[in-house]
Amino acid sequence: KTLPKTSQNLLRDMAQSQRQQTELGVSRLAKDADARFAEWLLRHAEPADAHGKLAVILHDRKRLIAAQLGIAPETLSRVLKHLRDRKLISGGGRVLNLLDPSGLQSLAGI
User: Fold this and answer.
1) What is the largest CA-CA distance in the chain?
2) Of 53, 56, 88, 104, which is the most buried if we count CB atoms within 10 A?
3) In this predicted structure, which of 8-17, 21-30, 51-60, 90-99 has the lowest mean pLDDT?
4) What is the pTM of this model?
């Protein structure tokens, strides 16, 4: 509390970033690609309509998303197909609709 406010904010931001990196590392060790992507989808979900449906807008290229998850782009394509086949997501291109958020939570282990 003796530090200036800007220093406190910097330390808090650094601590949050470190926590996120640690969680990502643990996730990569403990979860398969499907679970990691399900968790990623849930973290990036936004309300899609007034009925409470959720969607994810892919602002980044799939190659970058795959790198964030620690998987190959081809693996991400297979995971997308697998989640579509299981009716957990729908859509294509830049927008993915989350059809079954509770199913994604179960898959992600959260």
Assistant:
1) 55
2) 104
3) 21-30
4) 0.71
